[in-house]
Hints:
By secondary structure, the protein is an alpha+beta fold. It has helices spanning 14-24, 38-54, 71-75, 83-93; strands at 9-13, 30-31, 35-36, 58-62. The strands form two sheets. The chain has a two-stranded parallel ribbon. The N and C termini lie far apart (32 Å).
Amino acid sequence: MAHSASRPLLVIDGDSFAHRAYHGLPKTIRRTGDKGGGAIVGFANYLIRLCTEEQPRAVVVGWDTLSAPNWRAEEFPPTRATGHTMMKSSTNSMSCRNLWPPAAS
């Protein structure tokens, strides 16, 4: 394995990554309480694959806040009636994200 300084730093836009994972798997993947689980499975699969292929020295995942508007909401207002519904569904599917430690201040 290469010296850690020569290995890449893997930085992930967690919300974008999770949204892609949510839409990349069938909605039939369920977890406790009949909640969607596709985003969790897809996110984990993407992350494992990237770590295996890239052998990063570290992984950083950034998340938007749920309590305040983010740049996406301001820059790209919904263009379809279902825009908010899909985002709420993917957020619900990733509701276990509070298992990760909060970002450092």
